[in-house]
Design a protein that fits this description.
Layout: H1 11-15, H2 17-35, H3 37-43, H4 50-61, H5 63-79, H6 83-87
Length: about 90
């Protein structure tokens, strides 16, 4: 298991075939729900617009910098505030 304060991604993430199969299957099912006409009628969905894709992309990527910032902040707090930050208080 990866340590909660580790920044590097594990190489196991990229070699886990079952994980990538599950991710691909989920993406295909989600795409089918919004792009296949029969499913659109049954599920009452419409295809995303370009603006919708922008929101989807932003929301999908937002956790990465947020989590990394939290980890960095925790490391700084555990090590003590840097001298420059402490002098400014």
């Amino acid at each position: 298991m990866r340590a909660p304060n580790s920044v590097r991604l594990s190489s196991r993430l990229f070699t886990n075939g079952w994980l990538w199969t599950a991710v691909l299957l989920c993406l295909l099912l989600q795409a089918a729900a919004v792009y296949v006409p029969v499913l659109q009628r049954v599920l009452h969905t419409v295809g995303p617009t370009a603006a919708d894709w922008g929101v989807i992309l932003a929301c999908s990527l937002a956790p990465i910098p947020i989590v990394e910032t939290v980890k960095l902040t925790r490391r700084w707090m555990a090590a003590g505030l840097p001298a420059a930050a402490a002098a400014g208080r």
